Amino acid sequence: MMLDPSATIHPLDQHRDPSSAALVRDLAAEVAARHGGDLSQMRRANGISNATWVGGGIAVRIAHTPVDMAREVALVRALPDAVGHPEILADGTSEGHGWIVTREMHGQNLYEAWPTLSAAERREAIQQLWTRCQLVHEASRTLAAHVSSHGGFVPATLGDATASAERAAVALGLSSARRSRLHDLLADYFRTAPLVEHVVNHGDLALMNALWDGGVVALLDLEFAVRGPVAIDLCRLVCEACVSEEGERVDSEAADAAVEIAARQLDPSHGRVLLHGAAILDQLRDLDIFLACDSAEERAAHWRPARLLIGLLDPDGGYLAPFVR
Q1: Has residue 4 got a pLDDT over 50?
Q2: pTM of the full structure
Q3: Domain 108-323, CATH homologous superfamily name and number
């Protein structure tokens, strides 16, 4: 295979090794061609851990790193039809990189559509996003065999979470008070999580993982699906609705909808602790991704996940203020 790392670098690949990005692109082109597609005529879709191209009736999604997607494929095929996930046409592995070909669905990525939506449409989108997600939760008994108890932003152990917290504390120069609160919140999460019902969470309930066509018509990309408290999905829903692209807390109909949903769905005894802990884990994962890029262009404290994490450690709870007593 002839790689062309000098080809125009897509913005989604700007922090990746050019040769690795070229390999993934060429592998995706081969997969697309085998299924009647032409990658050069397909558009690149949003996504971070995978690269996705859509067009000509198909969508090709391929892992950036050598990762098998067999577990995700089995999970998707077991999902209730009402979740709306695009039909899987084929799956496989090329040079260790897992890939999935799905049927192209009519609609726009919700993240891309979001700026064009009215306040009422945004509120409706948040409500519908949660309704689709609940279908996954309700099918947990059927889906659980395909899903691990850790993955995505949920580490396997408190020790793993503590190590991530220490990396963040050093990078951000956290005060002793914030560092102590960070460790306390994580310990509270891992202590409390076994005390509540566990469901299969989507694990990455972001706007970019849904399709909009006058309403939310599909959930996408369940690669980070994980068994655990429902707070795992709720913390992402609240963040997506309550935080701007710039990382500022916003007041809006969509934010109100997300807060109302979380208030109804959280465990009455332990929900607030779990929501706060899950939100901390979410931002720690994103901060680790930023740190891996080793960007020297700006101080780590200015990064979006760093600012959100610091807000969560402050007395008012940052974007979780409605839930922090």
Answers
A1: no
A2: 0.93
A3: Aminoglycoside phosphotransferase (APH), C-terminal lobe (3.90.1200.10)
